[in-house]
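Try this one yourself first.
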């Protein structure tokens, strides 16, 4: 399957009763930058958001959909799969702060995964959820995700005695991995 075959003639990947997931559009770049700043307000790499946006717009192994409300077309966020042509694509969703905790992800993700599974013929998908992000962990479990354990981004030779300090100082380095079948 080719990347362009994932969308209909209008660039639509999926419609739910309340939302449309379509191919990202260049005019949504400010939303992406807003989400990057909201997710990592103190991170100097937030300034790299325009570079990462350019990758999103051109990468053929990354399925990124804009989430829009049916009717008004109001932008809510992005839903994506990384490494879509691998055996284990990675699921992610980023919602504007005003759209979080509103049920959008609970409605969209099961249908998004079902559509992706049908089109990509994958057996399962996975997601990395920050260890301190309890609402996302609960959502993953609610929609059928199975926690496969804790992982971290520390070097393999990182001293075990310092991991608890690192976890307090760098919580973004620690996450739980979920599988969705």
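Now uncover the answer:
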């Amino acid at each position: 399957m080719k990347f362009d075959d994932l969308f209909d003639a209008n660039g639509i990947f999926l419609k739910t009763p309340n939302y449309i997931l379509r191919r990202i559009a260049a005019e949504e770049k400010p939303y992406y930058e807003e989400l990057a700043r909201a997710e990592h307000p103190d991170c100097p790499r937030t300034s790299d958001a325009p570079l990462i946006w350019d990758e999103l717009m051109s990468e053929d192994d990354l399925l990124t959909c804009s989430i829009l409300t049916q009717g008004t077309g109001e932008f809510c966020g992005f839903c994506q799969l990384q490494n879509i042509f691998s055996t284990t694509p990675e699921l992610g969703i980023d919602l504007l702060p005003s759209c979080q905790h509103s049920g959008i992800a609970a409605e969209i993700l099961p249908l998004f995964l079902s559509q992706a599974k049908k089109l990509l013929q994958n057996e399962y998908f996975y997601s990395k959820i920050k260890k301190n992000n309890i609402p996302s962990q609960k959502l993953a479990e609610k929609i059928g995700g199975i926690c496969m354990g804790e992982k971290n981004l520390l070097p393999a030779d990182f001293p075990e005695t310092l991991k608890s300090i690192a976890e307090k100082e760098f919580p973004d380095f620690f996450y739980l991995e979920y599988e969705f079948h």
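Discussion: DSSP finds five helices and eight strands in the chain. Residues 48 and 137 are 27 Å apart (CA to CA).
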